[in-house]
Amino acid sequence: MIKLSAALRAEVERHAEREYPRECCGLLVGRIVDEGHTRIIHATYPVKNVFADEGEHHHRMAIEPLEYARAERRYAAEGLGVVGNYHSHPDHPAVPSQYDLEHLAPWPTMSYVVVSVREGKASDLRSWELEADRSRFEEEEVVEGVEAS
């Protein structure tokens, strides 16, 4: 399960709409609780899509690996860390693709949020967990969490 406040959800959706028709991407910062079963998101950390300047890849995204380290350093003093990432699917469902499975899911302990953007407007947000054997994604429940403290 992922707990995401309405305000943070709106941040992700606005980011996705601003980047349309390209895919946006970012990191989700928070805590893992409930023996690893729940990720509580406290902040979003938008990052540059390294495919952003390659027009033929407007339906691809990649996060520079150093961005994970930068986010971890920024939030470590608050006891928070990167617990997931997000990206948009312009004019496609909020369902991970085979490319997402093969290239964008480094750890089974993270949440992978996908936002569908239809004609420039966010229309659906869903979250996914990677199976332990990394063979596929399973949808996870998105619940409205508390605002970051």
Keywords, separated by commas or semicolons:
149 residues; alpha/beta; Cytidine Deaminase, domain 2; 21% helix; globular
How would you describe what is shown here?
The chain has 149 residues and is α/β, with parallel strands linked by helices. It has a single domain (2-115), classed as Cytidine Deaminase, domain 2. Helices cover 21% and strands 37% of the residues. An eight-stranded mixed beta sheet has the order 7-6-5-4-2-3-1-8. A hairpin with a 6-residue loop joins strand 6 (121-130) and strand 7 (137-140). The mean pLDDT is 90.
Short overview:
The chain is α/β, with parallel strands linked by helices and 149 residues long. The chain has 3 helices and 8 strands, in the order E-H-E-E-H-E-H-E-E-E-E.
**In what range is the share of β-strand residues?**
35-45%
CATH classification, class level: Alpha Beta
Distance between the termini: 20 Å
Strand order of the largest sheet: 7-6-5-4-2-3-1-8
Instruction: Report the helical percentage.
Output: 10-25%
CATH topology: Cytidine Deaminase, domain 2
Please, what is the CATH homologous superfamily?
Cytidine Deaminase, domain 2
CATH architecture term: 3-Layer(aba) Sandwich
Order of secondary-structure elements: EHEEHEHEEEE
Total count of strands: 8
Radius of gyration: 14 Å
On the 0-100 scale, what is the average pLDDT? 90
> Structural class, from helix and strand content?
alpha/beta
Cα shape? globular
- What does the main sheet amount to? 8 strands, mixed
Given the structure, what is the number of helices?
Answer: 3
Question: Number of domains in the coordinates?
Answer: 1
| Unreliable parts | none
